User: Fold these one by one.
Assistant:
Number 1:
Amino acid sequence: MLELSGVSSRYGVVPMLQDVSMNVMEGEVVSLLGPNGAGKSTMFKVLSGLLPSEGGTVTLAGENVSKLGTEKLSALGIGFVPEGRRLFPSLTVRENLRLGYDAAGCQIPFESRLEEMATLFPRIRERLSQPAGTMSGGEQAMVALARALIGAPKLVIMDEPSLGLSPKLIAEYFQIVKRIREDGTTVLLIEQNAETALSVSDRGYLLVRGRIAAAGTREELLADDTVKHLYL
Ligand SMILES: Nc1ncnc2c1ncn2[C@@H]1O[C@H](COP(=O)(O)OP(=O)(O)OP(=O)(O)O)[C@@H](O)[C@H]1O
Ligand SMILES: [Mg+2]
């Protein structure tokens, strides 16, 4: 579904991502792991069309999307959950969700998708008229995920969604990731928290200083020396 081949990027003259190749197949949950500063959010920026990739290609369902911006990528069926949520704080929850829906160009009516999201996230239901900025951190995390899902994307890419959540909320969040996957949505989960991320993933990649340092199934990565050294 999503395939990166030889992708590099730089900030000015400073190289960041170097020759990254990875793929996510339809129906999979794949983790991109890595310590602070490894280049995970840089990868998110490349995948969401905010930062150009230099050399290499990104393809989505066989189509080269390397040069597309966020709007086009959303319209092609990718839902984005950026680091730090990035909700519009003065807009209501409903308005934030509407923006996600409009970006996706979904054929299903808004009200019916909204009902689906309210079922998936019961706490959102009573709070649709509340300004998003007044929601708790955990609630905002759920709203950001609902905003990415409301347009019925084929693929969701999340950057560090568990950051700042309590262990209980992290568990709840990843339960929802499992549900999304069971509904047939493909997920690329960018996370620092390796054990938690791998617990819901089929496979993963480890990014260290802008390069892929290890790749494999959940079991292979948990047994990998570099992963153990960095995390366990
Ligand atoms: N706009 C920028 N200009 C210059 N350097 C940048 C810029 N954005 C990020 N960097 C640098 O690129 C490196 C990778 O940053 P990135 O945000 O991708 O890391 P990360 O893996 O997401 O880390 P974290 O887990 O802390 O979120 C860091 O050294 C960072 O300082
Ligand atoms: Mg980051």
Number 2:
Amino acid sequence: MDKQHSVMLVDDSLAMLGVIQIHLKETEFKVVATARNGDDAIKAFCEHKPELVLLDIVMPGKNGIETLGEIMGIDDAASVIMASSLGTRELVEQSIELGARNFVQKPYEREVLLDVMRNVIDHNQTTQ
Ligand SMILES: [Mg+2]
């Protein structure tokens, strides 16, 4: 396998975190941190500096949009992919305006998730 890319997963649902981790098994992506709320996500982002962040939008407390804003304030080159369920189109658009690189629709389909993640990594590699 080529070089692995570090990823942080953020979702308030433990079950959802489990699903994503299964999807990423035996791929080039290595989960270096998980968080279940915005504050923990920001702390873990600073600690691990992951190449990619997969960030749930709907979370109790600090939501994904607010969390995204703080992450981009810490590192404006951060690569963040938002995760949204149906009916959150406006939130997705807001996220892209704030600097998110892309979004994936929940529930996750493995191939779609991997495609979106690979596109962001490829884009980073060609613009470096
Ligand atoms: Mg959620």
